[in-house]
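for the writeup, i need someone to sanity check this before i put it in the appendix. the sequnce is what the collaborator sent (i think, or maybe the updated version? ugh). structure was predicted straight from it, no edits. if anything looks off just tell me and ill rerun, i have time this weekend
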Amino acid sequence: MIPKHHAASVTSAVVKASAGATEHMAMAEVTNIVSTMDELKERGFWTAGVAVEGDIPFTEFDYTTPAAIVVGNEGKGIRRLVREHCDRLVRIPMYGSLGSLNASVAGALVMYEAARQRHRT
């Protein structure tokens, strides 16, 4: 889900840069992220916000249940109100002098972990 305001739109350049991945993902623009999160919670989803100040490592969240992963924007991260509506904040442990990753890399790591947990044999 992508907010209609304050976010980059999915343009033809985005589709091209994704090397076709956008054709295999369900995407929706929503007017209000917090309202959408509340609706997902009513439907049984847990929300995990990816944030430097997260209280647990991203690998310790249970993605085997219905889960929505919230990734903020470059620089500022998740907006305060959205962060407050997350069930948990997860962090990606960083080593050395680097404080955080860009949003696409952080999102990819967390989505990979969700897929890994869901496809264990």
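The longest helix spans residues 103-118. The chain is about 30% helix and 15% strand.
thx in advance!!
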